[in-house]
Amino acid sequence: MEDLEEILFEEFENYSYAMEYYLPESELEEKVHLGVVHWISVGLYCLAFVLGIPGNAIVIWFTGFKWKKTVATLWFLNLAIADFIFVLFLPLYISYVAMNFHWPFGIWLCKANSFIAQLNMFASVFFLTVISLDRYVHLVHPALSHRHRTLKNSLIVIILVWFLASLIGGPALYFRDTVELHNHTLCYNNFHENDLDLRLMRHHALTWMKFIIGYLFPLITMSICYSCLIFQVKKRSILISSKHFWTVLAVVIAFLICWTPYHLFSIWELMMHHNSYFSQMLQAGIPLSTGLAFLNSCLNPILYVLISKKFQVRFRASVAEILKYTLWEVSCSGTVSEQVRSSETKNLCLMETAQ
After folding, report:
1. Could you tell me how far CA 160 lies from the centroid of its own chain?
2. Residue 157 has pLDDT above 90, yes or no
């Protein structure tokens, strides 16, 4: 039994959550409570999927296929791609949690799913950071922006962002593993089976790396950029709409709400190697904080793009153009008999097409 608990404690994203299946009968009340948390977290995952797929798909469609390629549209396109790929793979994780942490998809999909999740989660965070830097330079230092804010340089930054995100997500391909326990197959981080010190060192190193590079640095960068932006706006009377100000504030608040609990519980999780006193709180907190982190991927297109006045204008114009073209095609097609009887109308349509 001790070996079983030791293995489960090593499961990074939900090891403490899986412990509920091996609690004593005297702790039935805690099991009921954790069951409620279990389904609340599943609801958060489903909400992130339902909202994230259409929201990010809309952004990808317009920024990638309908609008002119600019530096700003490239940022938003890659941010939406990162969020879209992440939420696209959420059904695997939802199924895993809904089946009481039983992973029937095999070891390679266990590795791939974890890698893709971390790759796109952190790529999303990094693109949020890049957007904050870009907005600050573009509005406060227009001369510098004019010289260096080019499509070529932005493509280099995009490649670097995806490369850094892949480095952070890379360990999942090596450490992620599956294990059979009581007719359950767990997908967990196998840092080492026998060497406890090495296991602890790897767990600490990866957790702190993700916290510093994937949370602390982006948070500090966004806070400094937006604080300086607001200060310069007031000092130099740079024109900026109140709606843009509230969008900026909403982005920082959303980042704090979505990511702070995730990283705090990840750090707190490290204490479980030495003290299991707070295990019940961790069992409730880890899945909920993970769900909040997932929600950030569906909030990004809403906060950064969909509530932008410029995006709304361009979105309505694009939709109107699509509807106009669709209705024109319908009016120029019709049934075969209608086409025979309405040859003059058809010829008129063909003449308009030629123009």
Report:
1. 18
2. yes
